[in-house]
Amino acid sequence: MAALVAGTPWMRIRVIPEFAPPFIFRRHFRRNFSVRASIDSDAPVRVRFAPSPTGNLHVGGARTALFNYLFARSKGGKFVLRIEDTDLERSTRESEEAVLRDLAWLGLDWDEGPGVGGDYGPYRQSERNAMYKQYAEKLLESGHVYRCFCSNEELEKMKEIAELKKLPPVYSGKWATAADGEVEEELAKGTPYTYRFRVPKEGSLKINDLIRGEVSWKLDTLGDFVIMRSNGQPVYNFCVTVDDATMAISHVIRAEEHLPNTLRQALIYKALGFPMPSFAHVSLILAPDRSKLSKRHGATSVGQYRDMGYLPQAMVNYLALLGWGDGTENEFFTIDQLVEKFSIGRVNKSGAVFDSTKLRWMNGQHLRAIPFEELSQLIGERWKSTGLLTESEGPFVEDAVQLLKDGIDLVTDSDTALSSLLSYPVHATLTSFCLCSPEGRPIVEDKLSEVSAHLLAAYDSGELFGALEEGLAGWQKWVKGFGKTLKRKGKSLFMPLRVLLTGKLHGPDMGSSVILIYKAGNHGIVSPQAGFVTLKERFGILRQLDWEALNQDHPALESAATISN
C-alpha cells in the first residue's frame, strides 16, 4: 500500500536541493533549502486527528479535532482518527475508549479509524510496528540511517560536554562514520543499538505553514536523531511521518507545540521519497492569566464539561471561536453553519484565552435554542434522576421548565432552580431584611404584617386556593382584588406577596410560581427528599410569626425556622 501511496499524484513536493546518499549530501549540501507542499486542485483532502490514549481528551485536543473535522467537511474530504499508542507504559484501552466517547459526544464522527475501519488501516500505531520496521530498514539500506551502539552513559557524557561548551545538546555522530567492520563486531557481540537519522551539519530548512506563514530552522541545532529505539520500538516522529504518508494525509492540522517536530518529519519525508502534506499549526489555548491551560485552572477535559451539564453543540461552538471567526460579529453557530463558514485562512496564530464564563453563557444560548419538547424531556429526566421529582414528564414538568428555563445556563442548573422554587426560606429572608438588607428592610417596615394577616384570611376562607384552581387568570383576578382591598399596587403589592408566598425577594414570575407550588402540593409529583414546603405548610409558618418581635431579637423568626425545618 505504501508504494502505491508514495506514487499517487495527490500532492507534489518541491525540495531544494535533492537529498543524495549520505556520503554525497554531507559534502555538497547547500546552506538553505525549502520544503513546500503543492496540493493538486482535484486531489482528495484527507486530515487526521491522532490522540494519545494516556488520559482524558483535553479541550485543546478537542479543538484540534474540531478544526480537522471542519476542514475536511468543508472541503468534501475525509476525517481520519488514528490512535497514537506507542507509549506502552502510559497508554490504556480505557483512555482510548474515553477519547472515542468524547469525540462521539461532540458529534465529530470520523470517516476512518477505530470502530469504523477503512482502506488505510490499521488505525492504532501499536498494530503498525511491522510497517515501521520495514521503512526503518529501507532508510538503513539507503544510508539515511545508521546503527548507533552508544550506551546511555556515553550519551549523558556527550550532553555534559555540550553544556560545558555551551553548545546545543546534539549527538556527536560517533557511529555516523563507523567502518563496516566496527559495526559487524558490535552486532556479533549482541550490543544493543538504535537507528539514527543522518542530519546535515549545516544549512536551514523552511516550510510554509498555512497559519503561521514561513517557518525556518537551522539544521546544526538538531543533530542525528533516533527513529528506532534499542528495544525495537519506533520513535514518535518516525511513526507519525510513516503513518501520515501511508494514509495519504494531505493536511496536518495540529497544535503549535508540534511545530518543532516538523523539522525531523520533513527530513524523513524526503529521505523516504514521500510527498509532503501541508502543515497548519494551531495556537495553544491559554488560561485567563495567559499561561498554558492546565488542571490548576479548573476543568480542562471534555468529559468534565459533559458531566457538569454542558451541551455538545455549545462546546463545539465555543471551541471553534477559540482562534477562529467568520469575520462578522456573529458568535452563535451550529455545527452545519461552522462547516459552511470554516476556513483555515481565518485561524489566528495568536493564543486564545479560555473563558469559562463565556462558555457558560453560550451553553445557555444553545440550551434555550433547543425545541421546547426536547428541552422539557431533557430537564424532566434530569429532575427524576436526581430525585427531585417522581415523574419525568407531564403538565407539571412542562410548566416548570417553561417558567425556569430563562434562568438555566446548564442542565445541572435546573436542579437548583427547581429546588429554589420548592423551598421556603422565609425566616432567613426576613432575618436578612432586619439585619442588613437595604432592599428588604422597607418591605418589612411597610406593614408587611398587615399584608400577612390579609393573606392568611384569604387562605382560611378558601378564596386564594379557589383562585389558584382557575390557573393564571384566576390568580390575576384575585391579586387585583387583593390589591384594591389593601389599597396597594405595583411593588408595594407584589414584593410583600412574593416574600410571604415564596419566601424570597426575587425569582421567576410570581403568579406562575405560586400556581406551580400549589399544583406540586396537590399532585404528589415532588419526591419526599426534595425539601418541598407546600402552600399549606407555608401558611402554617406565617401564622407562627410574631411580627412585634421582628424588630427586636428575632425570636419569632427562630420559631418559624424550627417549623420550616
Question: How does this model look, in words?
Answer:
The chain has 565 residues and is an alpha/beta fold. It has 3 domains: 30-139 and 203-220 and 232-369, Rossmann fold (3-Layer(aba) Sandwich), CATH 3.40.50; 370-420; 423-551, no CATH class. It has helices at 2-7, 22-28, 59-74, 93-106, 129-142, 152-164, 180-189, 236-246, 261-272, 302-307, 312-320, 335-341, 356-369, 372-385, 395-404, 413-422, 426-435, 441-445, 448-460, 463-469, 472-486, 491-502, 510-523, 535-544, 555-564, and strands at residues 11-15, 32-39, 46-49, 78-81, 145-148, 194-197, 204-209, 213-218, 225-228, 251-255, 278-282, 285-286, 352-353. The strands form 5 sheets. The protein has a 4-stranded mixed β-sheet with strand order 1-2-7-8, covered by helices on one side. The longest helix has 16 residues, at 59-74.
CATH architecture grouping of the largest domain: 3-Layer(aba) Sandwich
What multimeric state do the chains show?
Answer: single chain
Rounded to the nearest angstrom, the distance between the terminal CA atoms is 73 Å
> Total domains, how many?
3
Low-confidence stretches: 1-31, 553-565
CATH topology value of the largest domain:
Rossmann fold
CATH class of the largest domain: Alpha Beta
* Average predicted confidence as pLDDT: 87
Q: Report the major sheet.
A: 4 strands, mixed
Strand content: 5-15%
Report the structural category. alpha/beta
